[in-house]
Amino acid sequence: xxxxxxxxxxxxxxxxxxxxxPKPLVPIGDTYSILEIVLHQLQSRGFHSVTLAIGHMxxxxxxxxxxxxxxxxxxxxxxxxxxxGTIGPVLQVLDRLPEHFLIMNGDVLTNLxxxxxxxxxxxxxxxxxxxxxxxxxxxxFGVLDVDDSGQQIVxxxxxxxxxxxxxxxxxxxxxxxxxxxxxxxVLGFDTLMLDLLGAGQRPGSDLFxxxxxxIGRPEDYDTANEQWADMAPILLPHxxxxxxxxxx
Length: 248
Known about the structure:
By secondary structure, the chain is of the alpha/beta class. It contains seven helices and 13 strands. Helix 6 crosses helix 7. The longest helix has 18 residues. The C terminus is likely disordered.
């Protein structure tokens, strides 16, 4: 199984932590970087190879990860000279990818079983399957439903909570889905979704109920560090429990 990890962003929202290092190399709990956690997780879930899409401070990621052998993986790279969007970097290496593969952001902490997720996609018929998560927004105001005339209130809800599903930044992709796009083209996840829906090809949703944290802002990074002691055995059980056994 193969994964493409998107690690080329500037991490602007996470400054000042990303002033000197790229976001995927920011440490969590003074133990592992975000990228190391992801690489260990992929290897433990049956992945053998990874492509790192790098750009901003990409030389640091190359120097840190190398060929991936210390993670039990074969790692290669694709460079973004200019930003290509979420999916654009994948187009540059499409011909060397397997029929089905994983695409994921390099700043995600989750205990999603990446191998099972990709397998479920392979067993289905969706052109792409998106790992999704439940979120909800509570309104600060009372919400009015008004009729077509705009002059009569037909219903009232006091500060309602609106549930919805969001993308976790993890996608299972079928290679032919991207054949319509040219290498070097800027292609965002939003454009891909709209193109597929417009063509009548419905993407799949794989709802996840475990732990998920998108480290996009300083407060998210602080949360990850605060939770690390509790989350380490959940995110990296194969490393955590092997270390305990060795200690015994």
